[in-house]
Known about the structure:
The chain crosses the membrane at residues 6-25, 57-80, 86-105. Keywords: Electron transport, Membrane, Mitochondrion, NAD, Respiratory chain, Translocase, Transmembrane, Transmembrane helix, Transport, Ubiquinone. It comes from Chrysodinopsis sp. EMHAU-1507081. It is found in: Membrane; Mitochondrion membrane. This protein is mostly helical. The protein has a domain at 76-109. It contains 3 helices and no strands. It has helices at residues 2-25, 55-80, 86-110. α2 (55-80) runs antiparallel to α3. The N and C termini lie far apart (66 Å).
Amino acid sequence: MKMLLSVFAIIMLIMLILTTILNLVSKKTTYDREKSSPFECGFDPKTHSRLPFSLQFFLIGIIFMIFDIEIAILLPMIYTLKTANALSYMLTTIGFIMILIIGILHEWKQGSLNWTL
């Protein structure tokens, strides 16, 4: 048990030394902080985090996720064409695509796809 604790202590000491050396030798400065800040989301990271954000941006993101996932479901259907009964394959595929078409028409009718600035 003492051997295990001593090895653990040595490992922790090595990690502490390496982390300290890395922080001392690192060329990063406070000026590089802007480069590593998140910019893909469209929010300024230096402002208050509880600012209201566009609900339309959220809805477009959800719609994108739904139709992105449907591609992942449709692609394996090509492989199952070889193993499945043709009639059941066609009914399943047509049913799935009809659900997607009804969903996109519903989103269109609700106005979620209209970009207003």
